[in-house]
Amino acid sequence: MSKQDNPETGDGQEKREENPEAIQGNAVPGNAAPGPENKASVTPEEKIAELEARLAESNDQLLRKAADLENYRKRVTREKQEMADFSNQSLLSSLLPVIDDFGRAIKSAETSKDFASFYDGVIMIEKRLITQLENKWGLKGFDSVGEPFDPNRHEAVQMEKAGGIDEPVVKEEYEKGYLLKERVIRFAKVKVLMPAESPPSANEGASS
Fold it and tell me: Which domains does the chain carry?
C-alpha cells in the first residue's frame, strides 16, 4: 500500500481538517437566501391602501379620546352643579327644627292669646338658633357699643361730635355684625362718636 493511500498519513489528515467555515460558505444551489431583488415588490396602490388604513385607525382613536374627554367634562360640570345645589343641605336641615319651633309658637299664640308665654317662647327659640349656629357652624355676632370704631368691622351710618374722647367710639348699634370662623361676613351698622375739635390754646391765639 502506498503512502498516499494510507488514511493515517499527514496528507489525508489535512484534507479532513479543512476549515468548516469555508465548507459552510459554499452555497448550495437552490437554497440561497433571497436578496432584496427577490422580495415581492409593493405596488403604489397597496402602499396607499395601507396608509389609508393607518389613517382611519388613528382618526378612530382620536375620536374616541375626544368623546371620553367630552364625557369627563360633562361629568365634572354636573358634579360641580350638584355640589353647589346641595352644599347648604346640612345647614338647612339643622334649621328645620327651629322653623318647627316657630310654627308651634305661632299656633300656641293664636289659641291662648298669652303674649307673655309667646314672648318667652320666641326668646327660647332665638337662643336655640344662635347656639346652634355658633357651635355647629362657627357663626357668632360681636358687640360694638362702647368699642373703638374699627373700619374692618363697623360701617358708620351716623356720626356725632363728642368731647372727652380721643378716638372714634361706637355709640349705638343699628344692625349687629357677624363673624364666620373669625371672618367678618356682615359689618355692624353703627353710630359713631367723633372727637370734638379742641379749642385753640392761649399761646396759639396770641401767635395768630
Answer: 139-198 (2.30.22.10)
pLDDT digits (tens, 9 = 90+) for 118-159: 888 899 999 999 999 999 999 999 999 999 999 999 999 999
For 12: left if phi > 0, alpha if psi spans -120 to 50, otherwise beta; the answer is alpha
Total-model pTM: 0.56
Helix-helix angle 89-112:115-137, to 10 degrees: 170
Closest by CA to 145, choosing from 178, 190, 89, is 190
pLDDT digits (tens, 9 = 90+) for 59-96: 999 999 999 999 999 999 999 998 888 888 888 898 89
Rounded CA separation 170/190 (Å): 6
Nearest by Cα to 64 from 52, 72, 53: 72
* C-beta separation of 191 from 160 below 8 A: yes
- Grouping H, G, I as helix, E, B as strand and the rest as coil, residue 18 is coil
